[in-house]
Amino acid sequence: MTSNASAATPTPYDARTRIAQIDMLRGLVIILMALDHVRDYFLGGPGMAGIGGNLLDPTTTTPALYATRWITHLCAPTFVFLSGVSAYLQFTNGKPTPNLSRFLFTRGLWLIFLEITVLSFGWNFGFPYPFFLQVIWAIGWCMLALAALVWLPRVAVLAIGVVITLGHNLLDPIDARELTGLAQTLWLFLHDGGPVFVGEQPIGLFAYPILPWIGIAALGYGLGDVFADKSEKRDRNILSLGLAMLAAFLVLRLAMVYGDPSFATGPEGDWKDWRLQTTGGAMLMVFLDVQKYPPSLQFTLVTLGVVLTLWPLLTRLPKMVQSVLNTFGAVPFFFYLLHVYLIHLLAIAVNAAVGNDVGGLFDYMINVFTATEKLAGTGFALPWVYLAWIVVLALLYPLCRYWQGLKARRRDWWLSYL
Prior knowledge:
The chain contains 17 helices and 3 strands. The chain has one domain (20-417). By secondary structure, it is mainly α. Strand 2 and strand 3 (201-206) form a beta hairpin.
């Protein structure tokens, strides 16, 4: 009998065929993610340009801006959750645990390296550039964690995911700002997020602290058995899981006692508590404005709840739409690498073409957080943001289609890292 603790017989599924909905779901959220990043570089107006703007504050936003920002909350938790699901499906596909663990470990290191180098530069376009440590960074660390967790039984990984996801908000009272030195850096890295300092010099941003995201990845691995089931049962169970998450979110959000720090007292407390709003629109906006950095329990429940509820609808979409989603979702990291540079370059080109000063779009991340006045002369109204988004998708589609075909035809080991 094998000593591999995770080698309990998994639920069989047709390992010869990719689960189409997984690629389509990835494709859907990566398209939404591109909208978020186009908005970062293209949206103009006072307080609106750049990554640092808050489009969810009902006192300053509009319904269209709010919806444009909120819908993109679905992206990161879906990517991280599906990274765990995909790891489990590789196990059910017959990949031995040592091989799976080694792959997750090396790919995790590769993603972290690229986030620190190629992607951080792509966001900034300047030297020296700050490290912008966000979703690829988080997925990289999740893969390192999964490289260890895959040696455990699936149910044990599920339990770890549930404990972290349900319980990490109990750690909210530990405030990194009250810590110093290595302890502060470690807590920013694990739970709170925030700027990274060497001495008194900021060198980057922990945008995605890793502990809550590891919980979501472990949750995906632990629930992988649901995705490995036969299609009709799988769709039914995933829909039930999504509805249960949404119900749990509604209970927690109505009670306002646990699972999100957005109603805590403080200078923003008057607009972060939905019960204090004076209009129905503001109440709805604040009700749905749950904390992403780090992802609170309520954030995880509502975003994954929406995504999993949509799952059975994916195969009911028109075939052309399914094909486009499948193409983008089959090569998500390839898309991600290209879209950062394409969006940034396109923003520079379009702003220059209409006579805007593009100086602020170089050293962009530094300007977003320390010199927003350099971005005041750039950007466009929201309809132009959507047009730029469509252009970006149109330019990326043939490249992704080619890369999807290449990966289907060839089995070179390095293709699995892109």
